[in-house]
Recover the amino acids of this structure.
């Protein structure tokens, strides 16, 4: 159990990040990214709007329940029972603490396991009617949302359930950043002519943070790369999008747009406490020309890569 002096409450209510250090110093192993994510009110409001009118008297399955916020919302809006699946042992402890009351009442059941191993028999007579989840991961599809839902379908768990959220979109947009477009000088290694590859293009790999969000200029030319439907979690291996002119841009930004009933949650709208980040693919300088060009992506189950560009 977390101690009553746990800095968790202070941390969640604070407007700075000092409490994160305090939390870690206290020896409680609470993943830092998880706290950042919980403080994201935009994410919370989106999920609240998804859940509030859909769960009354239903049995809910929360895939990747973390510390329990979506399970909590489900019960708050009238779910009969919630099964919460979480494989991270530290978050299982936090869940057991924060959800102690509904657990004691038999309304919340924590399944300490990997969602890939879930079988229908776990639920007895209470088959899930609604599945809630936020296993998109901090960027792209890094928490295997597609393959997890494929397994849930194979195991007969999701086919009759209402999946919240069901649809999301992968969006690609050309963007420019002088700050991130710095190419670096390479040195020859023992005569191997690496220096000849200097200044080929934007090399820096990027992890977007809120503080650096203003370093980007958007083109406004968003392209839909793929639609993800978790009722049909089959994806193609390759996708491509065409741009009319990449002359003024340094990167292609990939973001995920999660669709709600009447609203969307967009991963590129990182707010101060958000855990979302985007993937930035550098555009080599020789492709920054005023001609139509196609960007070709490979989509494996949990990663999306820019494979190459082709003239169209
Ligand atoms: C992005 S967090 C969201 C947590 C919580 N649902 C929320 O909205 O605050 C995803 C959670 O799913 C868990 N998770 C991801 N894949 C899982 C899997 N295959 N089985 C069980 N838990 C998983 C992670 O450990 C993490 O706690």
């Amino acid at each position: 159990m977390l101690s009553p002096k746990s800095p968790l409450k202070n941390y969640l209510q604070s407007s700075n990040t000092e409490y994160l250090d305090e939390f870690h110093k206290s020896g409680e192993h609470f993943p830092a990214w998880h706290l950042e994510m919980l403080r994201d009110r935009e994410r919370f409001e989106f999920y609240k709007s998804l859940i509030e009118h859909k769960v009354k008297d239903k049995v809910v399955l929360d895939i990747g329940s973390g510390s329990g916020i979506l399970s909590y919302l489900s019960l708050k809006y009238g779910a009969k029972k919630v099964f919460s699946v979480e494989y991270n042992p530290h978050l299982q402890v936090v869940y057991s603490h924060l959800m102690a009351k509904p657990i004691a009442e038999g309304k919340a059941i924590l399944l300490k396991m990997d969602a890939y191993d879930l079988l229908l028999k776990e639920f007895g007579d209470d088959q899930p009617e609604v599945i809630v989840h936020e296993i998109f991961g901090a960027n792209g599809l890094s928490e295997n949302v597609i393959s997890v839902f494929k397994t849930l379908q194979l195991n007969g768990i999701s086919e009759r359930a209402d999946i919240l959220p069901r649809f999301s979109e992968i969006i690609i947009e050309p963007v420019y950043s002088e700050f991130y477009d710095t190419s670096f000088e390479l040195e020859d290694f023992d005569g191997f002519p690496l220096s000849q590859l200097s200044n080929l293009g934007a090399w820096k790999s990027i992890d977007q943070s809120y503080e650096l969000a203003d370093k980007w200029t958007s083109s406004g030319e968003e392209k839909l790369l793929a639609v993800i439907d978790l009722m049909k979690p089959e994806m193609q291996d390759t996708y491509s999008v065409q741009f009319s002119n990449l002359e003024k841009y340094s990167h292609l930004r990939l973001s995920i747009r999660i669709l709600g009933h009447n609203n969307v949650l967009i991963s590129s709208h990182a707010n101060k406490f958000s855990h979302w980040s985007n993937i930035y693919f550098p555009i080599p300088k020789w492709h920054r020309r005023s001609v139509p060009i196609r960007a070709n992506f490979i989509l494996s189950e949990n990663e999306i890569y820019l494979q190459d560009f082709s003239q169209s």
Observations:
- Residues 41-51 form the longest helix (11 residues).
- The chain has a mean pLDDT of 85.
- The helical segments are 8-13, 18-25, 32-38, 41-51, 69-76, 89-98, 100-104, 145-154.
- Residues 37-38, 64-66, 69-70, 85-88, 91, 114-116, 134-135, 143, 148 surround S-adenosylmethionine (CB under 6 Å).
